Amino acid sequence: MSAPQSMPNGRRNSVSASDPPQFIPIPVNPRGVPQSSYGPTSPTLSTSPRNTFSVSPGSHTRQRSLSSLATPGVARQLTAFLPADYPLAEEEDGPGDKRQGKQRILLLENINLDAAEYLKKAGFEVDHVTKAYSEEELVAKLPAYDAVGIRSKTKITAKVIDACPKLLVIGCFCIGTNQVDLLKAAQRGVAVFNSPFSNSRSVAELVIAEIISLSRQLLDRSSEMRAGIWNKLSKGCWEIRGKTLGIVGYGHIGSQLSVLAEAFGMSVIYYDVIPLMPLGSARQVDSLQELLNRADFVTLHVPEIPDTIGMMGAAEFAHMKKGSYFINNARGKVVDLDALASALESGHLAGAAVDVYPKEPGANGPGFNDNLGPFIPRLRQIPNLILTPHIGGSTEEAQRAIGSEVSTALSRYLDVGTTLGAVNFPEVDLRAITTQDERHIRVCHVHKNEPGVLKRVNNILADHNIEKQFSDSKGDIAYLMADISDVGEEEVENIYKQISAASSNILTRLLY
Ligand SMILES: NC(=O)c1ccc[n+]([C@@H]2O[C@H](COP(=O)([O-])OP(=O)(O)OC[C@H]3O[C@@H](n4cnc5c(N)ncnc54)[C@H](O)[C@@H]3O)[C@@H](O)[C@H]2O)c1
């Protein structure tokens, strides 16, 4: 069977019932990132220096310890051409510093050490810091780096971006990207990557645990035991085998959950705004109301978007079967928690699990109180209601997967220019330049999205064969990748100067 294909944005192909695909595309690679830029085989670590063009005096090349094997067809490790005025690390650390000429990455907020190790092995100079930096610290320290990795506490503001002219890429080692001024970053040609789907499995497993826990009133029995109460009962406690699970939103999490639930003997129905191929024996239903009417357990896995905010209110809970259960591990604003409290207090629902809230405390510790909403004290009194502090995706495995996905994205962008998975850039990629393509160079040109740019760039490249080229735009930003062949070493700087001289130019990099 061929490898599962995914859309560039990680979205599985939608299907219609009349035209089912021949295989079910499970999102193994969360982003669906093809291996194109690295070619059929990843580069292999080697201590031997690579052959590089030497460019004219005054310009720099970055020397990296990573090298591809000299096997025909294997992706060639590319080196960035740097103009003469490019600020190299020796300016900060003095001549002879071991970091001279290496690309430098700053990892903040104690990012998974595996990620740091991966980036070091890929030939980058990595500084790993356990804490978050303030804006002042970033302005002082980040200008020395080509890339930064953060989690949610470090704010990359417009001021920080302005202070860091050589910053090329920001990796958010988390789901959200609110902590970065995405527009400013795009306008400055700084690509931003995150990892929205690395914790899908963790969430799906938590939902399975909640389904069983609710069905057996597990947390209430445990609380009673801690209070010294022996309360052995079977009334109102059920097996989940043979029950119907209704999944709202059949994306990365919903579809994984579907498979797990069927393994427990549940029947799965799902509702999604687009037609999607079912996994296993699951069935898509036509409306949310149909799902609510039929399911014994309803679980939400939709994004927070205008269409989904408040999608579960009093009317929707009334449509659920009496004695059914409700689970929300998606986003807090999707559910009216007052209405949920009423549905539970009236006994219409037999239980619920809530992991996400419209407002959440900023830090661990006391703070889950009525400042976050008037429904909080009510929720705390309701039996068979599992309340968790947004831990759906919080596992060691998910952290490792996030580390791996984002460090790979950083490394790929720096090394070969691919923006697949970027949140603020058009997603562009080209297949690899191989070891056979010795006199090829790759032009990576971030520019303003305005008429005439392609014509101008192609005129500059006209004396060479453009082997492959791909351009896309997102809002005011466009990104062009082009591989040109038969380029003499003396021509590299000239091509760079001509392309980057245009008023539409935001950032031009040449990789060879
Ligand atoms: N609790 C946690 O810690 C945690 C962790 C990860 C993700 N999440 C949240 O889980 C949710 C789902 O994540 P995912 O990775 O599966 O997302 P996804 O983008 O892969 O899937 C979302 C699905 O919802 C569907 N959808 C959109 N609007 C809809 C609507 N109005 N009705 C029905 N379906 C609709 C989409 O078509 C898509 O198939 C997101 O809100 C995400 O933020 C929570």
TrEMBL record:
It catalyses: (2R)-3-phosphoglycerate + NAD(+) = 3-phosphooxypyruvate + NADH + H(+); (R)-2-hydroxyglutarate + NAD(+) = 2-oxoglutarate + NADH + H(+). Its EC number is 1.1.1.399, 1.1.1.95. Keywords: Amino-acid biosynthesis, NAD, Oxidoreductase, Phosphoprotein, Serine biosynthesis. The keyword NAD applies. Residues 442-512 form the ACT domain. Residues 1-69 are annotated as: Disordered. It is an enzyme of class 1 (oxidoreductase). SUPFAM superfamilies: ACT-like, Formate/glycerate dehydrogenase catalytic domain-like, NAD(P)-binding Rossmann-fold domains. Catalyzes the reversible oxidation of 3-phospho-D-glycerate to 3-phosphonooxypyruvate, the first step of the phosphorylated L-serine biosynthesis pathway. Also catalyzes the reversible oxidation of 2-hydroxyglutarate to 2-oxoglutarate. Belongs to the D-isomer specific 2-hydroxyacid dehydrogenase family. This is 2-oxoglutarate reductase. It comes from Kockovaella imperatae.
